[in-house]
Specification:
heterodimer; A: about 110 residues; mainly beta; 10 strands; B: about 110 residues; 6-stranded mixed beta sheet; about 0% helix; about 60% strand
């Protein structure tokens, strides 16, 4: 595809439920990032994947958050037992190895009731 | 203190004015990025800088590595420039981004 795609675009869930957010990076981009944009808190890094290397999970806020990247392409961010403070826009970005510029997806807007 | 500081937080201008947004950072970086976010959330990369100056249309970005400071300039501003402008720095081998708080720019006709 032409750009990074994310699904769903919006997700409303009840507190305590699990959610899965999906990211399709640009074809050929080996690096993939998840970021979170919370209301009033700006953008923050969550997790980074590069090829087959172990991911950098240092930004994940709790052990309820996990992510995987299958086949070096599609990534899924999973939030277990969602809390209201998880409400945010979750953004995925990808870049080509050796190039610094990151390309962002449209985001998934998550609302936990 | 945030690793990336932007100013101003909010900026209102009249169409045609010259606009400057500033960014300071306190850590070693591999690159500095200027991003634009329109209402509705989509983020677009405007510039990636590691030194000097870049220009694209009416937008100019500069960086001073020694002073750890960057500026984004918009010449002949237009209402369609209204957006949030975000400064971000790439840190470490992963090039993960650390973001400033953003500058909300409103350009009135």
């Amino acid at each position: 595809g032409a750009g990074v795609s994310q699904s769903p675009s919006n997700k409303v869930t009840e507190k305590g439920k699990d959610v899965e957010l999906r990211c399709d990076p640009i074809s050929g981009h080996t690096a993939l990032y998840w970021y979170r944009q919370s209301l009033g808190q700006g953008l923050e890094f969550l997790i980074y994947f590069q090829g087959n290397s172990a991911p950098d999970k240092s930004g994940l806020p709790s052990d309820r958050f996990s992510a995987e990247r299958t086949g070096g392409s599609v990534s899924t961010l999973t939030i277990q037992r969602t809390q209201q403070e998880d409400s945010a826009v979750y953004l995925c970005a990808s870049r080509r190895q050796g190039i610094e510029t990151q390309y962002f997806g449209p985001g998934t807007r998550l609302l936990v009731l | 203190k945030n690793e990336v500081e932007q100013s101003p937080q909010n900026l209102t201008a009249q169409e045609g004015e010259f606009i400057t947004i500033n960014c300071s950072y306190s850590v070693g970086i591999s690159a500095l990025h200027w991003l634009q976010q329109h209402p509705g959330g989509g983020i677009v990369s405007l510039f990636m800088l590691s030194s000097g100056k870049k220009k694209h249309g009416r937008l100019i970005a500069t960086i001073n590595i020694q002073e750890k400071h960057s500026s984004l300039h918009i010449t002949a501003s237009h209402p369609r420039d209204s957006a949030v402008y975000i400064c971000a720095v790439s840190i470490g081998s992963s090039s993960r981004l650390t973001f400033g708080e953003g500058t909300q720019l409103t350009v009135n006709p």
